[in-house]
Amino acid sequence: MTTPSPAPLAFDLDGTLSRRARSMTASAIREILKVTQQPDVISFAGGLPAPELFPLDEVRAASNRVLDVYGPAALQYSTTEGHAPLREWIGAQAGIPARNVQIVTGSQQGLDLLGKVLIDEGDVVLVEAPTYLGALQSFQPYLPRYVQVPTDEGGIDVDALEEVLKTTRAKLLYAVPNFQNPTGRTLSAERRRRLVELTAQHGVLLIEDDPYGQLRFTGEAAPSLYSLGLDLHGDADRNHVIYSSSFSKTLVPGLRDAWVQAAAPIINKLIQAKQGADLHTPTFNQMIIAELVDSVLPRQIERVRQAYGERARLMLERIHADFPAGVQTTTPEGGMFLWLTLPQGVDTQALLPRAVQRKVAYVPGSPFYALGGGENTMRLSYSNATPEQITRGIHALGDTLREALGL
């Protein structure tokens, strides 16, 4: 007679998740993108580069050159730090050694790894209000305590930050100074210098996220926070500013090539964290990018600047023509986004399904606030929309807003 097997335990699989996993949330943008997969919906939601501008022929030719020059090595495992010629090129642009550059698989991975090596549970992380949603997602599993710093048309309010720092011991401040995601605003040159000095005085690390900085289509460029930190400290290994950028917005997003510039103690820990994450960014992709940075990248940046500038101007023109009075908008000098503030009482999250019924989509503003707020705001992206789509989509969105306001 055989003994019956014991009944399997009833697992509470949700209960097996770590505190970090339970703190994770889905990206509001990615969830909205599922809705906008319908081919007849005009989407101003995702911050997608324009695919018709991708340098297909140049990437194809660079791929062939890489295989001809490097052979099987292009398809082999490589060092965690990244492809040496690419790191050297990036370092040269910033005037720093290649050893202070770490290649990462998309700037999103860079933010995640920075959170892993810098944030302990309960550490205060200062963020702009509003701020980039992806950074909040990257940092949240490490259980920080967020403190929001107000922003205005000139970017982060440095006076308000100074008041916060008088009473708050912060670990780091995260900022997007150029054509900010989500607002499109740019931090003024005067505030940049003061921001770098304030954070240095208070022992606060400063993460400068700059994926859009090369995409300026009007106005004068300002120095990077990283370069100001380098001037202040005189040495890349003493600089308290950490710089993150990417080739996704200037060349192509699908190769997922980005980088972090930082002092050696931080870079060394990023290397170790990346070894546990994915060993290294794909070798072939890095080699392709390295083939393109001197010849193709400058032309590509100019091409993208011109196209995005035209689309931004058209979107602003149509907003002024088709939207009801009382809607405020930012005027970006570059990048991919602009920000709308609607009259109080309008909930853009609740309004989204009505907009989708009119075949247009956007991202509600509230997910970009670490501690809540912004219910009457929304983000629009003009980068991946044709002029005809911008015209039709803004008109449909204007109808949606007038209906919501009872006009």
Automatic annotation (TrEMBL):
<protein>
    <submittedName>
        <fullName>2-aminoadipate aminotransferase</fullName>
    </submittedName>
</protein>
<dbReference type="GO" id="GO:1901605">
    <property type="term" value="P:alpha-amino acid metabolic process"/>
</dbReference>
<comment type="subunit">
    <text>Homodimer.</text>
</comment>
<comment type="similarity">
    <text>Belongs to the class-I pyridoxal-phosphate-dependent aminotransferase family.</text>
</comment>
<dbReference type="InterPro" id="IPR015422">
    <property type="entry name" value="PyrdxlP-dep_Trfase_small"/>
</dbReference>
<dbReference type="GO" id="GO:0030170">
    <property type="term" value="F:pyridoxal phosphate binding"/>
</dbReference>
<dbReference type="InterPro" id="IPR015424">
    <property type="entry name" value="PyrdxlP-dep_Trfase"/>
</dbReference>
<dbReference type="GO" id="GO:0008483">
    <property type="term" value="F:transaminase activity"/>
</dbReference>
<dbReference type="InterPro" id="IPR004839">
    <property type="entry name" value="Aminotransferase_I/II_large"/>
</dbReference>
<keyword id="KW-0808">Transferase</keyword>
<dbReference type="InterPro" id="IPR050859">
    <property type="entry name" value="Class-I_PLP-dep_aminotransf"/>
</dbReference>
<keyword id="KW-0032">Aminotransferase</keyword>
<keyword id="KW-0663">Pyridoxal phosphate</keyword>
<feature type="domain" description="Aminotransferase class I/classII large">
    <location>
        <begin position="53"/>
        <end position="397"/>
    </location>
</feature>
<dbReference type="InterPro" id="IPR015421">
    <property type="entry name" value="PyrdxlP-dep_Trfase_major"/>
</dbReference>
<dbReference type="Pfam" id="PF00155">
    <property type="entry name" value="Aminotran_1_2"/>
</dbReference>
